[in-house]
Amino acid sequence: MRKKKNKRVKQEAVTYAIEIMDYDMPYYIAVGHKLDILPEPILENADLEIKGKMLAPGKLANKILNIRIMGSRKMLDALEHQGEINHEIPGIGTLEIRGTHAQCITGVPIDMIQSFILLLNTKKINYIILSGEPLRYGSAKIKSLGFSREYNQDDAS
């Protein structure tokens, strides 16, 4: 008798809500890199590093999450030429939560980093709302990233 192969049930998207506690914006620019190592002669790195307290889903409530939002010039170019993208994009980042380790790495067009800093400085945004896959073996692909001044837990359900 043959065993039936269990089909994995596709689960719905999960909303991960994070209250922003602290943030920083490291910036780096350098010239003179070897072109055989990096394709560009100028290297630029602008990130937004956020420390936050998870609010949802409930089983992750109060866990401290480190979020790194990387600024990307390539993402800006991709947004401007979406018709030229001929492959599926699996997500905009990843969420990893294993034991005490909790981090999210994602990206946005580099021009948005400065806007986010201004909004954070003026308290116009207090929450990050991520949407993505359910955690599986401590990891999940993130499909969307949003910022909000207020968070209503009923909206996440």
Protein described:
With 157 residues, the chain is of the alpha+beta class. The protein has one domain (14-82, 90-156). It is 15% helix and 45% strand. The chain contains three helices and eight strands, in the order ββββαββαββα. A seven-stranded mixed beta barrel has the order 1-3-4-6-5-8-7. The N and C termini lie far apart (43 Å). The model has no long low-confidence stretch (mean pLDDT 86).
Specify the overall morphology.
globular
Compute the average pLDDT. 86
Low-confidence stretches: none
What is the percentage of strand-forming residues? over 45%
What's the topology here?
Layout: E1 14-24, E2 27-31, E3 42-56, E4 64-72, H1 73-80, E5 93-98, E6 101-109, H2 110-121, E7 127-132, E8 139-148, H3 153-156
Parallel strand pairs: 4-6
Antiparallel strand pairs: 1-3, 1-7, 2-3, 3-4, 5-6, 5-8, 7-8
Tag the structure with descriptive keywords.
157 residues, 3 helices, alpha+beta, 8 strands
Gist?
It contains 3 helices and 8 strands, in the order ββββαββαββα.
